[in-house]
Specification:
InterPro entries: CheY-like_superfamily (IPR011006), OmpR/PhoB-type_DNA-bd (IPR001867), Sig_transdc_resp-reg_C-effctor (IPR016032), Sig_transdc_resp-reg_receiver (IPR001789), WalR-like (IPR039420), WH-like_DNA-bd_sf (IPR036388). With 248 residues, this protein is α/β, with parallel strands linked by helices. The chain is 35% helix and 22% strand. The chain starts with 26 loop residues before the first strand and ends with a strand.
Amino acid sequence: MKATMPTEPINPPECRPTAARINRTRFLLIILDPDRESAEQLADSLHERQIDAIVITDPAEALLEVGVLQPDAVLTAAHVPPMTGSAIARALYTKACIPTLVAVGPNDGDQVAQALAAGARACVSRPYRTFDILQLLQAISPETATEFQAVLEVGALRLDPSRFEVRLGDALITMPLREFQLLQLMMQNAGRVLTRQQIHQLIWHRGEESSNTLNVHVRRIRARLGDDPKHPSILVSVRGLGYRLDPP
C-alpha cells in the first residue's frame, strides 16, 4: 500500500504536550517493531540519509524512551503485543504531540482508519519501503528535507543533495535545479532503464507530453558531463524506451 494520510480530520484526539521539544541537529526517529531484523534494516537505510533511528521491540520500553528522548517522530507496527499501533499513536499524540506513523501489513487493512482516528500522522506499508518513510519524515521536518538524502556515487560521478553539488572526478559541475533532479533520479537508478513516462511523472509529476523538455535537459546534462552527444556513454538513450545512466 502507499502512504495513507487523512484528507479530513477523523475526530482526532486533542494534542496536549507535556514537555518542551528538544532542539537537535539530526532527525531522531524511534522505530517500534517486534521484528527487530526488519526494523534494523530500515534503521540502517535511514542512517545513510543522516537520520538517527532507534529500534525498540517492546511497547512499554518505547513509551519510556519517548518520554526521555522526545524524538521527532515514532514509527510503530500496527501490532506490537500487547498493544496496537493505534493505541500507541493515541498515547503519543495526546501526551506529547509527537508525530506517529503506523505501519500496516497485508492483513492489517482494518487498522488504517483506527490509526488515523487515533491521531497517527499517516499509515505506511510493512514491509517497509525507505522512500515512503523518507517522504513522510520530510513532511514532518521540511527544513531538513535535503539532509535526508544520501550522497550518490556512480563510478567517478558524485552527487551530494545536501550541498547541491555534482562532481565528476575532481571537477565541480554546476547545473540548475531540474537538471540536478534529473541526474539524481538517473543515478538512483544507475544501470536501469527509466522510460520517458516514468521520468516525466517523477520529475515533472505528469505523464509524457509532446514537448521536447526532457530531450533538452538530457542534452544539457550530457554537455556538462562532457558526454559525447552523438555517442553518449554516460546518459545513454535506449531507443523506444527512455534513458539509462552508466558509470563514467
